[in-house]
Each structure stands twice: as C-alpha cells, then as structure tokens.
Prior knowledge:
Layout: H1 4-45, E1 49-54, E2 58-62, H2 64-70, H3 74-77, H4 82-85, H5 95-103, E3 108-116, E4 122-133, E5 139-148, H6 150-178, E6 182-185, E7 188-194, H7 199-215, E8 220-227, H8 233-245, E9 252-256, H9 260-269, E10 276-279, H10 282-294
Parallel strand pairs: 7-8, 8-9, 9-10
Antiparallel strand pairs: 1-2, 1-5, 3-4, 4-5, 6-7
Amino acid sequence: MVTPDTDVESLRQQIADLEKQLEARTSEVAAAREDALRYRRYFDYAQIGMTVTSLETGWVEFNQQLCEQLGYAPEELKTTNWVSLTHPDDVSLDKELFDKLVRGEIQRYSLDKRFVRKDGSIMYGNILIQGVYRPDGSFDHIFGFLHDITDRWEGEQERLGLKQEIIDAQKQALRELSTPLIPVAESIIVMPLVGTIDSVRAQAVLEALLDGVTRYQARMTILDITGVQVMDGEVTSALVKAAQAVKLLGAQAILTGIQPRIAKTLVELDAELSTVKTLSTVREGISYALGRLKR
C-alpha cells in the first residue's frame, strides 16, 4: 500500500537524482568550456600559423601568427586562399596529396613549399595538413599548420653553397695537379704529365697550355710526357694538336719524353709534327729553349 510518506520519499529521491545529473552536466559544461578556452589560447597565441579551412567556404578561421607570417591584416587575408598565397611554381607540389586527403586515403601530410607574402617577398614554409572527417567518413575540413622555415632554408642554401665552393676548389686543385704548369725561366714554361691521359684530361691540357702561354707570355712551351706510358690514338692526336695550337699564339712547342709505345702510335696516326720539336728529355728541352731564346 502506497502511503503519502512513500510518495514524498520517492519524490525526494528523484530530486536528488536530478541534482546529481545537473551537477554532472554542469561539470561537463565547465570542462568543455575549459577545453575550448585552452584550445582558443593555443590557437590564438601559437608561434606557428594555424587555420581551419573548408572546401565549401575557404577560411573558417586563422590565427594572428598566420597573418604576420604572410604580411596580411586579418580582413585582407580573408580575401585570399591557399593557392593564391602559394608560389606559382609550387602550387602543384601537394595537389596529389591533398586529393588523397579529401578521398580519405591519407589523413595528414607535410611538405616544404614557398609562399608569397603581401609585399612580394618569398617565405619558405613547412605545412602540416590534417584532415577532419564526419561520422560517415566523408571529408569535412582541414586543420592547417604553417611553420616559417625561411632562416633554416637560407642557412641550408648557404651551407650547400659553401659545400659547392669546396667541391669546385677541389676540382680546380685536381685540374692543376693533373695539368701542372711550371715557369722555369723567362718566356719558358713546362707542363710535366704523369699517369693516364684520357680525352677529358687531354682537353684540360690544351686549355691550361694555351692559358699558360698567354699568362706567362711564353715563347717556348715544353710538354713533357715522360711519365705517361700509354695513350690511345684519340688522346695522342689531341695532345699533338695541343702542341700545335701554341704556335698560333706565337710560341714554339717542344714535346719531350716520348715513350716507345706512344712513338708507335704517332707513326700509325701519321701525326703532323713538323711544327713541334721533339727531344728525349725535359732537360734537353729546357736547354734547347734557352739556346733558342739567346739567338
């Protein structure tokens, strides 16, 4: 039998349950507000550019840092989009990745690309794009993060430039070692060659020899090949032409140290040596050159 006291007790219990539910809901709302405030602070004061972007509406929101990175006031930035801000040569860089993101094949991607600031200057940036999807799995919007890496990129380019300078200096040193040019007396230069001569080195010999004739105003050039044991027909012909070329600059070419195998190649090539003086050793070459200059 239900009594008035029973009804009152039941009502009190319902009220207590409602109060607990209200307290729990109030706590949830407070926590949600705290999360929203924390997100807003993170979004507004982050040291990288942040944005929420929709395919349908474009910019949903963006932070002040993004405006500062790209040099736009907030109202100005609203009139732009990701494509118009991207350097024209880099627009296609992430098109395939973005299409995959929209289709849900990937959920995020990151890459480096160039952006054009309002004043026309270039900013090198790293972007991180995170897809956000509806419960049914369809694409909704993206979170975009833009980090300015201009200083890092320029530093890397400077480092690469320095590395290239070192490589170029090493190449130059190797060229000088492979085609040494020695002024032994006034108007006399000697180029002693050692090791294997290929077509590339033969061309370097020609360039260095002609440059040396001009630089030292040489009248006698001695090309000593004592240290070269083997040369093929193409390279042998190239070296003979190098010796002949110096005559066009008004210098006498002297070829010393011809080895038996190379002599055989010269004969087989029927090389034109009428304008080239050939001697056994570089010592004889220098002695001959000094004698010719005294006349």
